[in-house]
């Protein structure tokens, strides 16, 4: 949580006025790919709009999942 707070403070210091966060984990996204009928209400932010994850094209789903794989900030 401390890293997240530092990140937000950096945005404020840099006068960044728009930030979007998806708060969903990789395992849930992978499960939604395998069993979309169980995850119909799973929504995510994609480039400024909200979408149902299970309704996205498979290549866009993979791209969203890849965004969850990162190292420490």
From TrEMBL:
The EC number(s) given in the record are 4.1.1.83
- Official protein name in the record: 4-hydroxyphenylacetate decarboxylase large subunit
Any single Pfam family the record assigns to this protein:
Gly_radical
Q: Name one GO cellular component term.
A: cytosol
Q: What organism is listed for this UniProt entry?
A: bioreactor metagenome
Q: Which PANTHER family match?
A: DEHYDRATASE YBIW-RELATED, FORMATE ACETYLTRANSFERASE 3-RELATED
Instruction: Extract one GO molecular function annotation from the record.
Output: 4-hydroxyphenylacetate decarboxylase activity
Q: Where is the Glycine radical domain?
A: 1-73
Which Gene3D superfamilies does the record match to this protein? 3.20.70.20
Listed A to Z, the keywords are: Lyase, Organic radical
Question: Which InterPro entries does this chain map to?
Answer: Form_AcTrfase_GR_CS (IPR019777), Gly_radical (IPR001150), GRE (IPR051215)
